[in-house]
Amino acid sequence: MIDWFPASDGAGSSSVGDDPTAGESALMVNRLVSAVARRHPALAAHSRRVAVVADALAKRAGWSSTDRARLREAALLQDVGMMRVSREITNRRGRLSLVDWGAVSAHVTAGLTMALDVLDEEQLKWMGEHHERPDGSGYPKGLRDGEISAGGAILGLADAWSAMTATRAWRGALTAAEAMGQCRERAGSQFDYTAVSLLEELWLNEGNTLPGVSGQSAALAR
Ligand SMILES: [Fe+2]
After folding, report:
1. DSSP-based three-state secondary structure for 191
2. What pLDDT digit, counting tens, does each position of 51-83 carry?
3. What are the helix and strand counts (H, E) for the chain?
4. Ligand 1 centre and the CA of 107: distance in Å?
5. 70 alpha carbon to ligand 1 midpoint, in Å?
6. How many A from CA of 39 to the centre of ligand 1?
7. Residues with CB under 5 A from ligand 1 (ion)
8. What's the gap in Å between 111 CA and the centre of ligand 1?
């Protein structure tokens, strides 16, 4: 079984502070993430990118190492519910039908059920809010700005960053500059303002630590 955040990883170990149950929790997270990786490697790779970006944003925001470790766990599992969505739908190109979209959007609640015994209550809240949007257009609850937790906002932006800067079967990856432009443009509507500000700071100062940002593009951004 792979340790998704070994101690030598830049993001640090996935053990959570001095909590004696943390080792057990990290082991359960690793088991679940490994199960995802065996069945859906691309999804596992995306989740790991999300965890790296979310961790960097949380560090920039001054989160404690304990809470960053908890956020990484939530990030690694936030899309685990996609395992319940048929490959036929997830591999489909172009616009999804309303029925298919319903199946895809249900991954949030399906994932919460799958992670119920693995994550704590606050981690589940962060995970459950990764598709909520400040303008209320997100799901599953249609929460608005001020109702979305900081962890949920960070996960939502990290998820979008990972998706935008990755190559998909039906499109190429956006450059870091293009992705940053999209994030700026949608700050306050699709993405939390504070989270976008953190990403901007990170991109300008430590951009080469972000997936999808090469040293060259980070330098060009300054
Ligand atoms: Fe998701």
Report:
1. strand
2. 999 999 999 999 999 999 999 999 999 999 998
3. 11, 0
4. 7
5. 18
6. 17
7. 79
8. 9
Distance 220 CA to ligand 1 centre (A): 31
First to last CA, the chain: 40
Does position 100 have pLDDT exceeding 50, yes or no? yes
* Residue 145 is assigned to a structural domain of this protein: yes
Residue 14 maps to a domain: no
With bands split at pLDDT 50, 70 and 90, how would you rate the model's confidence at 170? Answer: low
In this structure, is residue 28 part of a structural domain? yes
Residue type, position 171, single letter: R
Question: Do the domain assignments include residue 169?
Answer: yes
Identify the CATH number of the domain in which residue 205 sits. 1.10.3210.10
Q: 3-state SS of 97-109? A: CHHHHHHHHCHHH
| Structural domains in the chain (count) | 1
Q: What is the pLDDT of residues 8-45, one digit of tens each?
A: 344 444 444 455 556 777 888 888 888 888 888 888 99
Tell me the one-letter amino acid at 25: S
Domain that includes residue 93, residue range: 22-221
207 residue type, one letter:
G
Instruction: Output the CA 130–ligand 1 centroid distance in Å.
Output: 6
Distance 166 CA to ligand 1 centre (A): 15
Distance 1 CA to ligand 1 centre (A): 24
pLDDT band at 97 (very low <50, low <70, confident <90, very high): confident
